[in-house]
Amino acid sequence: MPRSFRSTLVGDLDVVVKPDAQIGAMTYFAIGGRADLLVHPLSADALSILLRRCHDDEIPCKILGKGANLLVDDLGVDGIIISLDRPCFTSIRFDCDDNANALHAMAGADLAKVVMETVRGGLDGLIAMAGIPASIGGAIRMNAGGEYGCISDSLSTVTCLTYGGELVTYNKEDIAFGYRSCSIAEPLVLSATFELQKCDPVALREKVKEIFAWKKERQPLAEASAGCIFKNPMSETGKRISAGKLIDSVGLKGTTIGGASVSRQHANFITTTTQATTNDVIQLIREIKTQVFDTTSIILQEEVVIWSRDPEMQR
């Protein structure tokens, strides 16, 4: 059941509040339940105070980005969901001169739009992110990337908010970035700076076209999905094995539970119909993990994030 909150939690803050919000529909899967409270801060001060109050009152608090790598349980999720979709959290700024080409981006900025802005400006460094749906903050949190590179490659600094609502800034070398992970402990990435390089805009556009063509050939871009469901596991030799190839090797392409199916184009994608439920996807994830382990002894780990009222289900 949705919890109630004290009236003083957000009543005096510069925020837009939506109780019992249907956040599942806001994800790329477009399925799942509700949040007790969806809050859209309208200023950095309001966000800072809200984080501190949630921490002091021990209220669960999560950050909703683009919803591209997220699965919301049918029963919803506890606590407060914060959306950084207002202008103060989506802006970007370029600082370019003869000596440096820097991009300053707020965490809520749309990664795809940021990439295209850099291409138009003839600035290289982020085009490896072409075709990856994410906010800047979410992309940094999971060190988004793929065949062409990771977002941390061009990262310079990251500014975060602590649970106490205080600002802290890290240089890239202060953060341990790994495969789909980073060591940032703070609950919220607020902004980041990137060091870019001058380049021919025409050459950059051609590279973006190449990346999109590569993805279109291999991934079900036209269907509802959350991108790769599983991380590529590490082999005994220290090299990553394609999770998609493992799933394909045990004959699971096209396997369907309810409205969820293993993509026939890329087995590490689960696609959904409008009739799908989150439970369909979760049951299919479990079936995939079981069959891959029974056949190969490899344990697949989810890359997709799962929000639930059940602590055992959250990942």
The number of distinct β-strands equals 20
Shape: globular
CATH topology-level name of the largest domain? Uridine Diphospho-n-acetylenolpyruvylglucosamine Reductase, domain 3
Query: Roughly how many Å is the radius of gyration?
Result: 20 Å
Question: Could you report the average pLDDT, rounded to the nearest whole number?
Answer: 93
Overall tally of domains? 3
> What is the level-2 CATH architecture name of the largest domain?
2-Layer Sandwich
Order of SSEs, N→C?
EEHEEEEEHEHEEEEEEEEHHEEEHE
N-to-C terminal Cα separation, in Å? 21 Å
Helices and strands: which structural class? alpha+beta
Note the beta-strand portion: 25-35%
